[in-house]
Design goal:
Blueprint lengths: L4 H6 L7 E4 L3 E5 L7 E7 L15 H18 L6 E4 L3 H4 L8 E5 L9
Antiparallel strand pairs: 1-2, 2-3, 3-5, 4-5
This protein binds adenosine monophosphate.
Length: about 120
Amino acid sequence: MSETIFSKIIKREIPADIVYENDTVLAFRDINPQAPVHILIIPKEEIPTVKNLDPVRHGEILSAMHAAANEIAVAEGIADDGFRLVYNCCKHGGQEVYHLHMHLLGGRQMKWPPG
Ligand code: AMP
């Protein structure tokens, strides 16, 4: 698999505003924020898209990503009002970076349906 910009952020080859890290996941602020709080939560393992997730092999990673989202939401002061978690998958999902990532968006009222 070809390396993405997120692999380079994991390896500290390019800078990012990192807000959370443990052995499994890394989280950093989106460079083009769509809300007052917009953080990307990524696994350190290179998994291209949601379609590549294996329910058995990747269960711990998914759990760690969601635990990170809850912890970050508290730290960012958006847990009480709520927030949105988004995975964009492939072309119609609008995915640009093919390293699995969850968008954590908050700090304003979200709308539904999305565009
Ligand atoms: P997606 O469209 O779901 O693949 O989202 C990719 C996200 O990565 C976009 O919201 C971009 O703004 C964000 N992004 C791209 N490059 C960087 C970077 N170097 N640092 C932080 N966020 C980035």
